Structure formats: structure tokens, C-alpha cells
Amino acid sequence: MAVCFNQGQTLGRGDLDIFLTDTNGVATNAAQITFALYYVEPVSCTEILIGDPARTPVNPAVGEYYAAIMVPPNSTPGEYRIRWTFKQTAGSPDQQVVQEWCVVGADTETGTGGSGGYSAAELECIQKLRVLLRDNNPDRNYHFRPPEHEGTIGCYNQVFGYIWEDEELLCYLELALDWWNIFPPETESLHSIDKLIQTKKAWKTPILWGAMVHALMALSINWVADEFDYSIGGISLSIEKSSKYESLKQNAESQFDKATEAKQRTTKFIRGLSQPRFGRGIRSAFGPHVGRGVLSPRNFI
After folding, report:
1. What is the pLDDT of residues 126-180, one digit of tens each?
2. Would you report the helix, strand and coil content of the chain in percent, each value rounded to 5?
């Protein structure tokens, strides 16, 4: 699932945006650019056009455009797409790229429904985790560019994809919370993301670090299967990324370990001594009362 917005939310810069560059990676404006919004019918997966097919975006900086729209309060929760159509020059062919996004219902804020059934606290943590992982804006953050001779292929249809889906990130957050609760002192009462945000919001950051560890480890596992080293006729091709993701995982794990140490030092738990006001024997004088003290030689052994 792509990035999600709430019913009635006003979208602006940084939400649904696109960044255009020339072949040298220099930001440049398009000669012509428009966008259209579509609702994706969940059963047939067909696109249903919403409103004007050629809307005009806002251009706050060179090469940057965003869709200034408001999600209607009565909009249907589900998956949506925005199709950007632009020309690099007046005589060049149309190019089109697609971004996937979704709308969640207002009841999602209470954790009782909406698209995907995510609560407001879960959506907040998922979005912040995307920012930490630099997966919040693939068009801006991912700079891979195909060879120039393949550019004609990219002119027809490009989909901006995210590395992790919301469901995966929520899974990593929950695993990190379980991991956090293992460390002393005992915090089993914080058994969900909602409970964590309501009770101890300051602990949100270490949970995000822990979730990063799981996310990067999963990606490292993927690249272990995809890595290869090939050489023929003096030309070699090597793809190896798992060690890089492993290094990032270790850095995130180090931050999480430091947070668990702070958890032990900053959480105060006081256990009182339960013992009678008047008693006899050494047990009532030294330590919690576990039974009626009896003064006898055996008790002094």
C-alpha cells in the first residue's frame, strides 16, 4: 500500500509531488505538465477518472510540482492514483508517470476501521518510519536512472514504487515494540502502538529505531538471494548490497541498544516492604514479611 491520507485532508507541498531533472540530473521545468486523479475500483482494479483530466499543478521551485487538492470528507476509502503527463520541450512526446496513494476513513483515527484498519497512531509511526528509511518520496530520494538508450521505454509508463508496504512497516513496528518490552524494567502493559503513544510517547523514537533494524534486515535477506558476480570476455558485473544494508542495520541496532540502557536508568519503579507493625523474629526485622516471625535457634542458622 502506498502513502495514505485522511478524508477531508488538504494536500500540499511534500504530499503528492514530482521532481523533474534533465539527463544530467539538473532540475528543470517542463514545457507542459498536467495531472489527473483516479479511483482504483477494488474488484476489477480499473481506474475511474475523478474530475478534470488535465489539472494544473503548483510549481514552487524549478523542477518541482505538487498537486494542491483537498480529499473530500465523503470520499471513498481505498486506493487512488495520480497520473502526471508532461513534455520536456514543446515538440517532445508526452511522458507519463504514476503515483499510487490511498484514502483512509475518518473512523481509522479511533482504530476501528478505514482502509487497512490502521489507527492514527499506527499511521503516524508508519509515516515517520518511512522518513527514517528515506522511503517517503521515491521520486525525490531514489536517483537511479536507466541508460539513455532505454529512455524511450520510460517515456510510456513509470510507477513510483515504495520499497516497503504499510503492512510490512507496521509488522516491524510491532516486532520492535515486543523487543523493547523484553528489556527491563517490565513494560508488558505497552502491548500495542496505540497504547505506547497514549502512555509513553517519548519511547516512540527507540521503537522506530528497532523497526528500522527489522526492515533493513529483511531487505538484506532479499539481496542475499539477488546478489551475483559474473564475468565473461573481460567484462564483469557484480551486484552486492546485502552487506551495505547489514551495516545500516547494525547502526540502527546500536541506537536501539543505547535507548534500552536509557530505559533502565530513567524508569522509576518502587516496591514497598509489606511487614507487620509489631512482630517477632529476624524475618520481620530484615526484609519483606513472608510469615509470622518465630524467635528460635533454627531461625538464626
Report:
1. 989 998 888 877 766 665 544 444 444 444 444 456 788 888 999 999 999 998 9
2. 40, 25, 40
What is the average pLDDT across 252-265? 79
**Which three cell numbers mark 123?**
499511521
Residues 71/9, Cβ–Cβ less than 8 Å: yes
Residue 243 domain boundaries: 164-267
Q: Quick one: what percent of the chain has pLDDT higher than 90? A: 22
- Across the range 181-200, mean pLDDT stands at 85
| H or E stretch covering 177 | helix 166-182
Please report where in the chains the cell 509489631 appears, as a residue. Answer: 278
For the chain, how many structural domains are there in total? 2
168 and 64, same domain (yes or no): no
DSSP one-letter code for 70:
B
| Continuous H helices in 203-287 | 204-226, 242-266, 282-285
Q: Is the peptide bond before 185 cis (omega within 30 degrees of 0)?
A: yes
Residues with Cβ within 8 Å of 10's Cβ and at least 6 positions away in sequence, in order, are: 69, 70, 71
Q: What is the sign, positive or negative, of the torsion defined by CA atoms of 118, 119, 120, 124?
A: negative
